[in-house]
Amino acid sequence: MSRWMRIVAAGCLAAALGAPAAAETVTLDVQYAWPSHKRFHEPLAEAFMKEHPDIKIRYLAPAASYTDGQQRILRSAVTGALPDIWYSGYNYLGELVRTLEPRGEIAELGPLLAAEGADWLKANYADTVLRLGQVDGRQWGMPLTSSTPIVYYNKDLLASVGESADALRTWDGIIGAARKITASGSADGMSYAVNEWGDDWLWQALILNAGGEMMSGETVAFGGESGRSAVSLIRRLVTETHMPFLDEDQAIQQFAAGKLGIFIGSTAEVRVMGDAIGGKFGLGTAPYPAPVKGAGGLPVGGSAAVILAQDPAKRKAAWEFLKFITGPAGQKTVVLGSGYMPTNLQTVRSDYLGQFYAAHPDWTTSVGQWPIARPWFGYPGASGPRIWDEQKVVLSQIMRGEVTPEAGLAALVEVTARLAKATN
Asked: Where, by residue number, does the polypeptide cross the bilayer (predicted)?
């Protein structure tokens, strides 16, 4: 080897030995629910990995719903195959924490939030939002998505039967408008798929809207006036408007095709609705009907991101990802890809969503319902999914007239009390 070549080789070796080692890539397995939510999860991962090239986000096959996802996570805990991050439905967070905390399989986030500093915390998250991710006063999840049910309506169909958005303020007004649309023969009047939803969110909305609650201590609390109001209403929706039995996806497709006048569902579908309609008719959104009794309330739907990773390096990387997806830039991506309410205070600034909201007021309907937003109740133990499996059968029987509303309510109370007690 020539003297010149030896000098070059020695220099290269010295440079290699003196250079800092390349950061090892950390891969995080992330589980989310609802396959359609890929539209914002994928951009979130891409934007995060661009800023953090040493962290790779790998999504697992999405769960069909929060209920399906919860069952999947609990099975994975038994087999030792938990993902590093899971987006738990708020109603299942308590069960998740009480199952995994004793085994050290879920990270408490309170210390991580405290380490970021009080000023950072105050600038980004309202206490009401943070409480969505708390169990027994401790922070276990970072609220990623949040929603309340709203009313979608076809402005053209409503106008064609001589009605306006004012009719949608009350249940009687909605039923009257939907009945006219059905009678016109141009479309089905409405859809409120309480019995076809993936979980009990719309059912809880009816109870809270009537001034009730799901349980008081260990006692089922909707067996009185609030429950009677709810079951009577769902039967009226069928008998008075001839409401078709559609699941959420079917109802959205029918609405977007101009074949459904009114759809009551999650604000998370505002983007989907607008894209699917594509200007074929005027789309409007309105608040959930006025409370049947008193102040009423609405359950906050959505999910909280929890860290299930055991490895310290993965937990550190997972925290960076949680801060990103619940930060203002991440929340802008979530909102614009769905219609969810932002969970970060900075997201409404003009440099994020402020100007967009001003130009698209239909996207702000759910945000205006924060004053009556209530926690999405979670049943004790692991009873939530089993209770809903039984409840939705009874709700279908009530709506189809197979049992009277009174008998159906008694059955709902019985099955809820029995299954909730079985897991205490």
From this structure: none
The Cα 66–Cα 192 span in angstroms is 19
Question: How far from 148 is each of 158, 288, 313, CA to CA, in Å?
Answer: 23, 8, 36
259 and 273 in a common domain: yes
User: Do 174 and 285 share a domain, yes or no?
Assistant: yes
Number of domains making up the chain: 2
CA torsion angle 257 260 265 271 (round to 10)? 30
Phi and psi torsions of 333, nearest 5°: -65, -45
CATH assignment of the domain containing 162: 3.40.190.10
In angstroms, rounded to a whole number, what is the distance separating the alpha carbons of residues 345 and 338?
18
Same domain, 41 and 117: yes
Q: Is 330 found in the same domain as 267?
A: no
**Residuewise pLDDT in 10s, the chain (424 residues):** 444 444 334 444 344 444 444 568 999 999 999 999 999 999 999 999 999 999 999 999 999 989 899 999 999 999 999 999 999 999 999 999 999 999 999 999 999 999 999 999 999 999 989 999 999 999 999 999 999 999 999 999 999 999 999 999 999 999 999 999 999 999 999 999 999 888 899 999 999 999 999 999 999 999 999 999 999 999 999 999 999 999 988 999 999 999 999 999 999 989 989 999 999 999 999 999 988 777 789 999 999 999 999 999 999 999 999 999 999 999 999 999 999 999 999 999 999 999 999 999 999 999 889 888 888 999 887 788 889 999 999 999 999 999 999 999 999 999 999 999 876 5
Query: Which structure tokens are listed for 155?
Result: 């402005």
CA distance readout (Å), 184 to 152, 156, 163, 173, 343: 19, 13, 13, 17, 42
The answer for residues whose C-beta is within 8 angstroms of residue 342's C-beta and 6 or more apart is 146, 331, 332, 334, 335, 348, 353
Indicate whether 229 and 366 sit together in one domain.
no
